[in-house]
Design brief:
The protein is an alpha/beta fold. It is built from five helices and seven strands; from the N terminus they run H-H-E-H-E-H-E-E-E-E-H-E. The chain has helices at 33-41, 50-61, 81-90, 104-113, 157-163, and strands at residues 70-74, 94-98, 116-119, 137-140, 144-145, 151-152, 166-167. The strands form two sheets. The chain has a five-stranded parallel beta sheet with strand order 2-1-3-4-7, sandwiched between helices. It has a two-stranded antiparallel sheet with strand order 5-6. Helix 2 crosses helix 3 (81-90).
Length: 171
């Protein structure tokens, strides 16, 4: 990478495992091995993935307590789910990750008990009213298009907004 470049954006094929891009100093997407290692070890190496960082910024901006809270992250990608879980743990939350192999009953229980619920499943309507309770904070980072051509998140906003204490809208 040229020294006059300040940052690089790297596009990788989803589910490709990893990227061969190794120039961490300019990796603003936080997807190099060294950037991810920094997230997973708690070191200040590289950059965190931008969506995971944005979730943390939302929690900080709205003064939502993290320390000692239960957090559930729905999704285990290296771009959002796993890094966000590590970032929440660094702030002393107790974190559980749910994914496509988590049973529906377990996911419902885990999500409904969480104080903070981050949804990054990549599928619309993954989280519904039964997954949240009064006072919960729900951060939905999903970007989907429903059967009517409307943009929607991974959580059913209409259902969870009635139950959650705070929820991020999509779009």
């Amino acid at each position: 990478a040229a020294s006059n470049n300040h940052r690089l954006t790297v596009t990788v094929k989803p589910n490709s495992g990893h990227t061969l891009f190794r120039y961490t100093a300019k990796d603003i997407d936080g997807i190099t091995d060294l950037s991810l290692a920094g997230i997973f070890t708690g070191a200040d190496t590289g950059f965190p993935p931008c969506t995971a960082r944005a979730c943390m910024e939302i929690l900080d901006y709205y003064d939502i307590p993290i320390k000692g809270k239960k957090a559930a992250v729905v999704g285990r990608s290296l771009v959002v789910g796993r890094p966000l879980a590590m970032m929440l743990m660094k702030k002393n939350a107790t974190v559980t990750i749910c994914h496509t192999r988590t049973t529906l009953s377990d996911m419902e229980k885990i999500c409904s008990e969480a104080d903070i619920l981050a949804v990054a499943s990549g599928r619309p309507d993954t989280v519904k009213k039964q997954h949240t309770n009064s006072g919960r904070t729900v951060i939905d980072v999903g970007i989907n298009v429903d059967e009517n051509g409307n943009m929607c998140g991974d959580a059913n906003f209409d259902e969870i907004s009635e139950a959650a204490g705070a929820v991020t809208p999509v779009p």
